[in-house]
C-alpha cells in the first residue's frame, strides 16, 4: 500500500508570545510530526520542547474521548460515560431552568488554553450573550500590564520582535524568554553575537538571567521604583531626547516632578540593589543606540503591576528610542490585530440589549463561588461552564477555589482534553478537540503576524470543537438566530476586519493557504508618534486616568505583602514567594505528559543559603511552604539563584500529580492589582520549614 503523506499549515494554540507557524505531517489520517514552519520569520523552523511533542498530547492515552457524567462526590473524579444526546439534553435543561430564574446566575469560565478565536470567544460568547449570563472579567494573566499600556500607548502595541536583532542594549525585564518565549531568545542571542548587551531585571537568576551580561536582582514588586529612578537620572543628567518629548509625548513637566522623588539612593533601598546599579543602568540605557526593552508579565503580578508597566513604558519615549525600528519596547503586539469583536461575540443577542451583564473577576473565582449573593454582588453563582482553562489549578488561593467548585448545589460543565483538577469537579465533562483536529485563526501577542490553523486530522473518538459544542447546545436551547449556525470557517472569517489597511488585501482564503501574513505596519511604529492614545502621543500624564479616578502619573505602588510594606505580616512570613512558569510546562498544560513531567521531576523550591541555614533546610530536603492561606510541600534547592528573602517555586503543577495534591496557588492571594483588576501571584509572603 502506498502511504498518503501530506503537510498541513497550522498554528500553535498555546498562551505563549511566540505563536509559532506549524507544519503538521499527516500520514494516512494520522498526525505523525509537528514542526516549525521554516519560512515563518520568527518561528524559523524551530519549536519548543513542549509543542514538538504535540502529537503525544493529542494521542495521549488519557485523552477524553466521550462525554462523562459525574457519579461520585465533587472532586473525586468518578464519572460514567454518557451519550452526547443525554449530556446536551441535561445541560440545556439545567441551564434553561436556572436562566428562567436569573440568567446571571450562570457564568462562563475560560482563558487561553487555546488562543484561537474560533475555539475561544466567538460561538461561546454568542451563547452566553444570548443566554444573558454573567460575563467573566478575563484578568488572570495580562490585564494589569494591558491597562498600563493602554493608558500610555493607547493599546497593546510595541516593536516588531524581529528588529531586536539590531538593538545595542536589550533590557529583558520581568521575563524569562528561555522558558516562555524561546523565539525571542533566539533573536536576543543573535543581537548578542552582533555586539548587544543583555541585561536581565528579575528577582530570580532564571535560565535567561544566567545567560545575560548583567543580572539586576531587584525585590519583587519594585520595578516602578527602578524605572522612576532611571528617569530621575536621565532627567538630572539631561540624557533625554527633548525633540521627541516635545513632539510625541504628553506631560513631561509633571513626570519630571514625579521622578524627582525617586533619587537613586531611595530607589536602591526600595529595590534592594545598589545606587550605582540604578545610575549605571540609566546611563547605559541612554547611550546605547538603539536601546530596547522586552517587558513581560513577571513584573506585573504584584499590587503595583499596572503602574509598573506604565513606568517602564515611559522610558523609550523619554530617550526617543522609538525613532529606530530596533528601539522601543515590546510587551504586547496584540492591539495591532484588526479584530472585529462585535461580529465575533454579538452582544446584540443579549436579552436586554442595553444592560451590561454582571461582571465576575476570574482572578477571585474562589470568593465569587463562595458568595451567597446579595444586592451588590448579584445572584449567587449556580452554574459554571469552563473551557480553555483549569481554574482549580491556576487560580489563586486554591483552597477557596476548590471549596467553591466543591459546592454540591453548583452545576458545573467542563470542556476539556484531559481529566484535569477542574474536570474532577464537573457534573458533565465534554470531550474537546485539540489544535490538530479543528480549525482556527490566531493573532499573537509577541509578534506582528496573523495565522491560520487548518485541521490536520479528524476529531478523535467523540470529541467536538468548542465551537461545535456551543453550536449544538444553542440548538438544544431552541435558539433560531442564524449566527448560531455559522461554521468555523465563517467564525474565522468574521473575526477580522479584512479591509483594514493593516491586512494589505489578504483574505481568509489566502491566509488558510499561506498559513500566515504580516500586518502592514511601519517598521518603527512610533518613530513619528502615532500612538493609539486619544492625544496620539505617548501619555506620561493621562487625562483618562484622572477621569477614572487613578493617579495620572506613573508611580511605585508598594506590594500588599513585603518586608518593607507589611512588617507585621513579614514578622510571621518573612519570605517573598514567586511562582513563575516551569520551562517544560505551559501553565498547567503538559503537566500530564509523562516525558515532560519527568523532565521537571517534582515540585521544587529554590531558596538562598542564608535563608535555608537558619531554618535547618538542606539542599534536596523536603520543605513545607505556608502562610495563613494554605500550605504545600516541595523539594528544597538551596541556591544563590534565589536572592535572599525571595523563594521561587516553578509552576503550575496539576495538584493531583504533585505528591501532596497541592500546588503554589495554595499560598497565593486573591488580592488584585492597582490597574486592570489582575491577580497578584508574585505578591505573596510565606515561611518555609523542613517538612
Ligand atoms: N514554557 C512556558 N512558557 C510559557 C508559559 C509557561 O507556563 N511555560 N506561560 C505562558 C504565559 S501564560 C505567559 S503569561 C508568559 C509569561 O511570560 P513571562 O512574563 O516572560 O513569564 P516568565 O517567563 O515566567 O518570566 C517571568 C520572570 O519574571 C520574574 N519576576 C517575578 N516577579 C518579578 C518582579 O516583581 N519584577 C521583575 N522584574 N521580575 C519578576 C520571574 O522570576 C521570572 O523569571 O509565558 C508564556 N510562556
Ligand atoms: N501560581 C501561579 N499561578 C498562575 C500563574 C503563575 O505564574 N503562577 N500564571 C497565570 C497565568 S499567566 C495564566 S495565563 C493562567 C493560565 O491558566 P489557564 O488559562 O487555565 O491555562 P492552563 O493551565 O494551560 O489550562 C488550559 C486548559 O485548557 C485546555 N484546553 C486547551 N485547548 C483547549 C480547547 O481547544 N478546548 C478545550 N475545551 N480545552 C482546551 C487544556 O487542556 C488545559 O487544561 O494561570 C495563572 N496562574
Ligand atoms: S508554546 Fe510557544 S514556543 Fe512553543 S510552539 Fe507554541 S508558540 Fe512556539
Ligand atoms: Mo499568562
Features:
691 residues; alpha/beta; six-stranded mixed sheet; binds ligand MGD
Briefly say what this structure is.
Belongs to the prokaryotic molybdopterin-containing oxidoreductase family. Helix content is 29%, strand content 18%.
Task: Please render the helix and strand layout as text.
Layout (H helix, E strand, L loop, with lengths): L4 E7 L9 E7 L2 E7 L12 H4 L1 H5 L9 E3 L8 E3 L2 H18 L4 E5 L12 H9 L3 E3 L5 H11 L15 E5 L3 H4 L1 H12 L3 E5 L5 H5 L2 E3 L6 H14 L5 H7 E2 L1 H9 L3 H8 L3 H13 L3 E5 L9 H14 L9 E3 L10 H5 L13 E3 L3 H6 L12 E5 L3 H4 L3 H8 L5 E6 L11 E4 L8 E3 L6 E5 L12 H11 L11 H7 L13 H7 L1 E3 L19 E2 L3 H5 L19 H6 L2 E4 L15 H7 L3 E4 L1 H4 L9 E6 L2 E9 L7 E3 L36 E6 L1
Parallel strand pairs: 6-15, 7-14, 8-9, 8-12, 9-10, 11-21, 12-13, 15-16, 16-17, 22-26, 23-25
Antiparallel strand pairs: 1-2, 2-3, 4-5, 4-17, 18-19, 19-20, 22-27, 24-25, 24-27
This protein binds ligand MGD (2 copies), iron/sulfur cluster and molybdenum atom.
One ligand MGD binds next to strand 16.
Task: Report on the architecture of this protein.
With 691 residues, the chain is an alpha/beta fold. It is built from 25 helices and 27 strands. The chain has a six-stranded mixed β-sheet, with helices on one face. A six-stranded mixed β-sheet has the order 23-25-24-27-22-26. The chain has a five-stranded parallel β-sheet with strand order 10-9-8-12-13. A hairpin with a 2-residue loop joins strand 2 and strand 3. Helix 12 crosses helix 13. The longest helix has 18 residues. The chain starts with a strand and ends with a strand. The relative contact order is 0.17. The model has no long low-confidence stretch (mean pLDDT 97). The site of molybdenum atom (MO) has 2 residues, from loops. Its cofactor is Mo-bis(molybdopterin guanine dinucleotide).
Amino acid at each position: 500500500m502506498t502511504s498518503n503523506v501530506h503537510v498541513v499549515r497550522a498554528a500553535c494554540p498555546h498562551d505563549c508570545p511566540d505563536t509559532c507557524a506549524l507544519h503538521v505531517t499527516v500520514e494516512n489520517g494520522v498526525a505523525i510530526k509537528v514542526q516549525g514552519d521554516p519560512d515563518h520569520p520568527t518561528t524559523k523552523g524551530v519549536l519548543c520542547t513542549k509543542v514538538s511533542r504535540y502529537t503525544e498530547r493529542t494521542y495521549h492515552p488519557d485523552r477524553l474521548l466521550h462525554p462523562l457524567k459525574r457519579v461520585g462526590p465533587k472532586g473525586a473524579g468518578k464519572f460514567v460515560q454518557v451519550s452526547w444526546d443525554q449530556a446536551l439534553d441535561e445541560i440545556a435543561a439545567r441551564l434553561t431552568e436556572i436562566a428562567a430564574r436569573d440568567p446571571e446566575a450562570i457564568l462562563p469560565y475560560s482563558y487561553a488554553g487555546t488562543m484561537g478565536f474560533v475555539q475561544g470567544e466567538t460561538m461561546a460568547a454568542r451563547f452566553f450573550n444570548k443566554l444573558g449570563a454573567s460575563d467573566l472579567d478575563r484578568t488572570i494573566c495580562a490585564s494589569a500590564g494591558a491597562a498600563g499600556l493602554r493608558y500610555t500607548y493607547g493599546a497593546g502595541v510595541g516593536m516588531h520582535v524581529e528588529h531586536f536583532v539590531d538593538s545595542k542594549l536589550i533590557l529583558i525585564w520581568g521575563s524569562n524568554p528561555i522558558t516562555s518565549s524561546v523565539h525571542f531568545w533566539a533573536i536576543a542571542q543573535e543581537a548578542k553575537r552582533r555586539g548587544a548587551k543583555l541585561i536581565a531585571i528579575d528577582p530570580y537568576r532564571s535560565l535567561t538571567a544566567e545567560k545575560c551580561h548583567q543580572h539586576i536582582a531587584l525585590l519583587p514588586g519594585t520595578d516602578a521604583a527602578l524605572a522612576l529612578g532611571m528617569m530621575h537620572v536621565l532627567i538630572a543628567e539631561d540624557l533625554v531626547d527633548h525633540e521627541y518629548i516635545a513632539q510625541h509625548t504628553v506631560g513631561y513637566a509633571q513626570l519630571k516632578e514625579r521622578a524627582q522623588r525617586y533619587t537613586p539612593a531611595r530607589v536602591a533601598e526600595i529595590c534592594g540593589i545598589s545606587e550605582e546599579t540604578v545610575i549605571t543602568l540609566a546611563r547605559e540605557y541612554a547611550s546605547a543606540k538603539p536601546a530596547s526593552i522586552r517587558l513581560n508579565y513577571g513584573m506585573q503580578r504584584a499590587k503595583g503591576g499596572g503602574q509598573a508597566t506604565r513606568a517602564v513604558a515611559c522610558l523609550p519615549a523619554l530617550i526617543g528610542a522609538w525613532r529606530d525600528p530596533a528601539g522601543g519596547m515590546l510587551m504586547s503586539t496584540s492591539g495591532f490585530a484588526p479584530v472585529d469583536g462585535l461580529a465575533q461575540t454579538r452582544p446584540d443577542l443579549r436579552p436586554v440589549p442595553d444592560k451590561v451583564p454582571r461582571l465576575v473577576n476570574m482572578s477571585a473565582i474562589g470568593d465569587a463561588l463562595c458568595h451567597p449573593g446579595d444586592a451588590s454582588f448579584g445572584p449567587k453563582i449556580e452554574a459554571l461552564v469552563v473551557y480553555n482553562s483549569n481554574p482549580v489549578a491556576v487560580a489563586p488561593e486554591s483552597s477557596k477555589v476548590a471549596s467553591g467548585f466543591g459546592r454540591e448545589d453548583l452545576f458545573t460543565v467542563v470542556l476539556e482534553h484531559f481529566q484535569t483538577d477542574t474536570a474532577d469537579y464537573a457534573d458533565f465533562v465534554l470531550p474537546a478537540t485539540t489544535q490538530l483536529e479543528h480549525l482556527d485563526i490566531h493573532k499573537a501577542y509577541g509578534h506582528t503576524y496573523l495565522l491560520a490553523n487548518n485541521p490536520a486530522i479528524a476529531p478523535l473518538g467523540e470529541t467536538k470543537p468548542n465551537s461545535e459544542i456551543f453550536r449544538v447546545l444553542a440548538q438544544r436551547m431552541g435558539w433560531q438566530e442564524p449566527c448560531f449556525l455559522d461554521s468555523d470557517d465563517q467564525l474565522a472569517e468574521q473575526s477580522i476586519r479584512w479591509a483594514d489597511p493593516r491586512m494589505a488585501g489578504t483574505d481568509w482564503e489566502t491566509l488558510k493557504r499561506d498559513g500566515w501574513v504580516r500586518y502592514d505596519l511601519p517598521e518603527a511604529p512610533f518613530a513619528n508618534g502615532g500612538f493609539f492614545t486619544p492625544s496620539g502621543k505617548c501619555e506620561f500624564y493621562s487625562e483618562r486616568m484622572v477621569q477614572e479616578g487613578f493617579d495620572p502619573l506613573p508611580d511605585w505602588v508598594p506590594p500588599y505583602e513585603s518586608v518593607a510594606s507589611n512588617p507585621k505580616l513579614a514578622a510571621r512570613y518573612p519570605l517573598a514567594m514567586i511562582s513563575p512558569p516551569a520551562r517544560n510546562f505551559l501553565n498547567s498544560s503538559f503537566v500530564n505528559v509523562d516525558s515532560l513531567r519527568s523532565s521537571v521531576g517534582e515540585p521544587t523550591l529554590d531558596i538562598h543559603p542564608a535563608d535555608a541555614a537558619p531554618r535547618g533546610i538542606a539542599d534536596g530536603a523536603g520543605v513545607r511552604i505556608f502562610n495563613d492561606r494554605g500550605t504545600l510541600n516541595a523539594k528544597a534547592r538551596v541556591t544563590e539563584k534565589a536572592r535572599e528573602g525571595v523563594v521561587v517555586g516553578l509552576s503550575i503543577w496539576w495538584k493531583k500529580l504533585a505528591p501532596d495534591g497541592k500546588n503554589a496557588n495554595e499560598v497565593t492571594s486573591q488580592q488584585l492589582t492597582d490597574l486592570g483588576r489582575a491577580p497578584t501571584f508574585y505578591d505573596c509572603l510565606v515561611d518555609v520549614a523542613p517538612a
